[in-house]
Fold:
Amino acid sequence: MFESLSTKLQNITSKMRGKSRVTEADLKEMTREIRMALLEADVDYKVTKEFVEQMNEKCLGADVMGSLTPGQQIVKIVRESLVELLGSEETKLKVSPTGFTTIILYGLQGAGKTTTAVKLAKLLKKDGKKPMVVSVDVHRPAAAQQLKILADGVGVDCYIDPEEKDPVKIARDGEAKARYNLCNYLIVDTAGRTVVDSELMDELKMISREVNPTEKLLVADAMIGQEAVNVAKTFEEAIGMDGFIMTKLDGDARGGAALSIRKLTGKPIKYICIGEKVDNIETFYPQRMADRILGMGDVVSLIEKATQNIDEEAAMKSMENMLNNKFTLDDLYSQFEQIKKMGSLKDVMGMLPGFSTAKIDDAELDDKIIDRQMAIITSMTKKERRNPNILDASRRKRIAAGAGVQVSDVNKLMQQYEQSAKLMKQFAGGKMPRGMGKAMRGMGGMGSMGMGGMGGFGGFPGMTAGSSMNRHKNKKKKKGRR
Structure:
């Protein structure tokens, strides 16, 4: 998310971070580059202008040019300014004092309201709540059925009435059903339009009066750019709203609207969706998002994802094998499964501090690589998975044919496995591989959650010793020796 903007801001801040002396010309050039980066990312012109002016004032007020570490101070100010633009602190969902909270989701057609309704319901369910989703969309064919299928897939209560054509009555009946089922959250999925019109607004007003929502959330498509801001203002004027759920942030074409929307409307972003899967929703934390945009990582969110998605029993079994120096391909397969549960490889890697996905070929962070490597492992016999040393040329040829890949792909997987096994052997012997101590402390011991095989990128698909990132690092080392 924000890939293009993130790359540019990281390049700008990395240049400043290394400076031991900063001149007025340096500050002027930095603010010019940041202004251009924001505008190219489709951040609103007025928002960009105000952001740059305030940041410049802070730099001058802090006397960074006279500081002993001016570069570091400037990076700190850029981060603080970005956090302020995004909203400073998270804004939680309001909860009804009656114990029954109703949330209405509205927005333009195609923004992803129906999927988002189920995503939000699943998130609430994970948090120990009992939500129900109800579809009052009587205009789009099969809208109610889509909601029902998605809700059933994640075990969330759902109310639909395909025969009823009055959305207000469906909302009323849905609320009654939710209360009868002892649900404490009702999420209302409303109809969308390709354009905002009076008919849509009148319908939403009637539904809103009927269910008296605790929260009115606009589901806004980040890919439509500044039009998202105009849509938000129209909805706010007509029926009011409490905040946003930004969708399609995994795209990057016009994602800068997400940086403008809070400043221009005064309403907070409460959740973001970064993919189509039902799990691809997360609470919006301005500070964490700023850190991710600037390449500072988001270890807290990474640990939360690991805690929510990793199978503790499988992780403990894998850890036991590691400690007993019995790390097998079955363990590596299990770790691939854990990675897939956490989301896209690119998003997971982007949460690691100091790791810029922009410096790595997209092909090396393609989620299909994991699927391919899992297919290779499943093409092996149980004996081969437990004792990879017996994999001679003929066996590798057979495995490649079974998985539909080249023999070279099997060889790459085995190199990766050997790297991980070597790392696990060091852990089992009580040795901390060089450079891992600080990383593991920062990760809060994520190795115990089944991610040990990923140390030093040894267990990440595509991140073998021959990857472009490692080649880039090796070139730097060679230059340093001359």
